[in-house]
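Model: You mentioned two targets. I'll fold them one after the other.
Researcher: Yes, keep them separate.
Model: Target one:
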Amino acid sequence: MTDQTHPRTAMLRRLVAALTLASSMATLPSATWADDAKPATDVRIGQLPAANTLTIQGLDGSDGPLREVLAKAGAKPVWAGPFASYPAAAEAAKAGKIDITSSGFASLINEAKAKSDILLFAIEADHLGEGIVVRGNSGINSVRDLQGKKIAVNFKGGTGDYIVARTLEENGLSREGITTININNPEDGVAAFASGNVDAIATWDQYLAAAINVPGAKLLVDGKQIKSLNSWVHFVTRDFATKNPKALKALYDGLVAEAAKIDADPSLDSAAYKKQGAPAKIIDTIAGWKLKPRIIPIDDAGLARVQQIARQTYAYGFQENLVDVTNNVFDVTKVK
């Protein structure tokens, strides 16, 4: 549930130093626009330091397929940020400063629980590395060996906690004897793992790659093995979706087009991580996962997937009550 935070350059540099890696942060390109006879609708996108089919298009200097598909709908992309985390982007969205941003399923559940005006309009499946990494000297050789060990997660109900819960359920184990250590900043979680303060870490994306690169560390399970439903998700404000449904549908089509580009040329992912300052070893590790994104609308099948996630978070004790997500989704397939 790629939840509240995403890789931040400052902490990455500290992690890189611990792993004897080095990097520098690239600067987001600014967009330029041709004069239009009729003013185009601005689609204000909250950029995050992450690599998904939305954020990558804000890094390549050409806006990827978004510029063309939005132009046909009388709109244009305008990039804001980058925001350090989803909460910062969500605050901007609720203040009317941006229209679009990304996060993970945990954020959706929280927005639905709060009955906010942030809506899910696209799921980006199969494009997020996640798993549990264990220290080489931890004595952990199987999932059962996690009992009695300390596992770093970001917070209760977040991505790390979800990974642990899915791992245990998939292996027929209870949480009895499992100790999770909440370290809200996942970058700090990797640092705690590298220093030996915890035996294992459940994490995602660049954090997972950084943990794997700790000397002696090994990947215990990954997202595919535990049948994780977590993924990137893309949000829109209710106001924008209501007033500009055709522009939103065009943006969705731009995500689909970008997913096809990444499938044909996976180096686009690596280039995005490089522009965001990720070290070479981290980039190479992520490239080795061979992730291929799929963009899923919130039609009946997409909604069923979202509702399954909501049921899981309730069953795992992350929520006191089953959260109704139906008021926080938008189905672009119904836009004509």
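Model: Target two:
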Amino acid sequence: MPKPNQYTFSQGLADFIAELRLGSDKSPSTIENYYRDLLLFYRYLAGNDEAALLTSRKPELIAAQQELDAALPPIAVTDITHRDIKAFLLHCQDVRQNSKFALARKVSALKAFFAFLMQEEIIAVDPMEKVARPKVNPRDTLRKHLNRDDIDALFSHIQDQEQMSHRNMAIISLLLYGGLRISELINLKVTDIRFGENYIQVLHGKGNKQRLVPLPDKVMACLRSYLQHRSHPDAVYLFTNRQGGKLSRSSAYYIVKQLIREVGLDSALSPHNLRHTCATLLLEAGIDLRYIQEFLGHADISTTQIYTHVSRAKLREVLEESDPFDLD
């Protein structure tokens, strides 16, 4: 390990992420978010926060971003103060227009990073001790969602597409009616689909826990149609890139964002807002929060944390009776 005054932020970031991947119970999605937030902080410190480029997830721009990152000047972690961190958070709030939820996530990433540096005795003072975490109302994360007209417009647009309509229909259906996270979507394998039972098997969260997600008949029909038309019929993963490998997270994100822009919906909407829309539709249908929690594989779907086990058979029965997605 280099001396503290020679230990740079880029070294710390690489060591921290490696430590998380090897020895923590953080999910791959959380680790990736930590990496992105800390890299953004590094870019800010280096005076290279070009928002138009840095917020892009276009696959063709990733290489350019990585090239710029490699050229960032070295910054000693011992030179970073709480004032730098507070200034960064203000910048994210005022310039980048981050929500309280996004700011809270950045604070969590920074706290974990500097705690790691303290543990490794790289720094003697934790600058995060003087940085408060924004108070977030869990309900805030559910406010942005699509209404029925938005949903109809989105699906109508996909049906009118000449290329990739089957793939896009399958992606949007799984996010919107299956409540999948983008990381769960790209990790789906063809063998995870159980057509005879109208379920998909999803690995999620810390430790790759498994849940079975029941889906309406029309969504299963979308999946069948997509499988009949996809470019790589023998591929293991359900959604693939041009070479037949697993579709990347950034590519899936870009596909959804592009569809949202093409329809003319709120540009702030993201794939995760489709998951929020799924939760909202279920809530509006009067489905008990315990069932929604089981359906989404989420322990904090509301302000109350509910850890009650619900049988999959009962969940299926409730969904069939209420028809929350109004697909008939």
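Researcher: Noted. Anything on target two?
Model: The chain has two domains: 4-135, 142-322.
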